[in-house]
Amino acid sequence: MTDGTAASGSEDQHGRRTWLPIAVAGALVAAVIGVVAIRSDPLTCAKRVDAKSPLLSVDGMAAQPDQRLDTLAAAVNGWADPFGPVRAGVGYDYDQWLHLYGLSDGLLALTKDNARMSLVDDASLEARWSLVPATKRTAWDASDDDFLLLDLTKDSPTRVGSFDLASGKESWCLEVPAAHADGEPVATTYLDGGSGKGDVLVALPKDAGLLVTRLRGKDGQVVWSKTLTGVGRGDYLGPLDQDTFVLGGVEEYRLATPDPKGRGGAVIRAFAQKDGAREWTWDADPGTAAHVVGVHDGHTLVVTATAGRSALLALDDEGGEVWRIRPAGDAVESTLRGDVVLMRTKTGLDAYDAATGKPRWHTDVPTDRTYFPYGFTLSQMPSLDATHVLMPTTTALRVLDVTTGKSAPYPLPTDGISTTYWPYQLAVTPKLLGVVTNTGGVVADRIPATAG
Question: How far is CA 133 from CA 47, 168, 202, 338, in A?
Fold first, then answer.
């Protein structure tokens, strides 16, 4: 699940991270809920409008010269594989105006102060469809076939809609009886891993817990809906195996300031997919914040933080600890990629084996200058494949091999102003690579293209 500014295509495997939705347009008992969804005909979650992309074609860029955009495009055109020729781009003056997210066969494009959400086809680079959501604040998710949209408002039930990814046609729209205030978490996941029209889980704050609703993917029918407690802020929601899902933990940024007076207790739980029945519980110690990194080979990986100390640990299919380590530098920032957990400290990157917790490699990063762009987190890096990610730095993009720590640089241009070409977002599809910087974004062919 993501929103207008959060990175997509970089989610931890098989799960959807919670994001705090923002305005796109300006702006330990489970209790069964009696009324689980409200259908009101006609109800719509978004209006289809004329398809329009914010990106200019190469010819359009030539017709509207922009020195900074042209400089960025020239730099990308000079990069080696996997970057091919630039196909489109657009310039702007800071303020993170453009956002691109890589989906299965296209780019989702959003712009600041514009409600329109457009899917740009990764072959033609023309807009395939555009939607205007029913509310200003939204969150969204996507599978290989579907686009899931949540219309969020503090005063009304949350609208959940499914749209065909190829056409943008609305498949279904319903209301879940949980409002959503700005700043609250929201999470979704596809129970088939996002590979088709699988059922969807939606988690929204409700009373003292989270209202979790399972919706049938093909028609939106409610399978079950329950208020689940003992799951922290419900930051992570994702399948553990074919029968079970994991819910719980807090947002990663909260690990930096764990509450020393925190009571501890149940913060992560597993539940049955078929009915939401509780399977197991993991308790945090008092004063400890816990964040779910992801799921690997039936184990739930967790980073915990207390005052001045962190841990990386794995839970088995009954919630018991399999292993626990203290990361180098008491790191708390992490991401799971393939068989590796990457963690970042102020001085470098460390990789740990996801099956055992054993260190795999370490690499230093410069400390005499700003190396990563402001706001960068490891989870924002899009994966090129199971072993390689695109990593932004302030002087170059790097293709990082997560198994070895080795990386190849792709130099960014400079103009005497340090932040001009700093990338704040990268996007990957099977055919395209997107580089979005402070003053312009470009989309290039991916060489070689991969299967969608």
Answer: 6, 12, 18, 34
- CA–CA separation, 129 vs 109, rounded Å? 11
- Taken in order 313, 317, 319, 320, the sign of the CA dihedral is negative
Q: What is the pTM of this model?
A: 0.91
List of residues 6+ apart from 299 with CB closer than 8 A: 314, 315, 316, 317, 322, 354, 355
Q: ∠ CA 61-64-66 to the nearest 5 degrees? A: 80
Neighbours of 29 (CB within 10 A): 10
**Separation between Cα atoms, residue 312 and residue 352, nearest integer Å:** 9
E strand intervals along 68-199 = 83-91, 98-102, 106-111, 117-121, 127-133, 137-142, 146-152, 158-164, 170-176, 187-190
Q: What is the mean pLDDT of each run of 10 residues along the chain (452 residues)?
A: 41 46 34 40 90 98 97 98 98 96 96 94 97 96 96 96 97 97 95 80 95 96 97 97 97 96 96 98 98 98 95 98 98 98 97 98 96 96 97 97 98 94 97 98 93 63
Q: Amino acid identity of 164? A: D
Burial of 67 (0-12, 13-18, 19+ CB in 10 A): exposed
Per-residue tokens: 18: 């919670």
Tokens of 27: 């702006």
Residue 11 has what pLDDT?
40
Q: Single out the residue of 183, 227, 184 nearest to residue 209, CA to CA.
A: 227
Cβ proximity of 313 and 325 under 8 Å: yes
- Pairing between strand 388-392 and 396-401? antiparallel
Retrieve residue 326's tokens: 């203290």
The rounded distance, in Å, linking the Cα atoms of 35 and 202 is 15
**With the C-alpha atoms ordered 39, 42, 45, 51, is the resulting torsion angle positive or negative?**
positive
Q: How distant is the alpha carbon of residue 116 from its chain centre?
A: 20
Residue with tokens 């994991």: 246
Cα separation, 97 vs 3, in Å, equals 14
pLDDT digits (tens, 9 = 90+) for 326-357: 999 999 999 999 999 999 999 999 999 999 99
- The C-alpha atoms of residue 249 and residue 261 are separated, in whole angstroms, by 17
How many Cα neighbours within 13 Å face the side chain of 57? 9
CB atoms within 10 A of CB 449: 15
Strand partners, 13: none
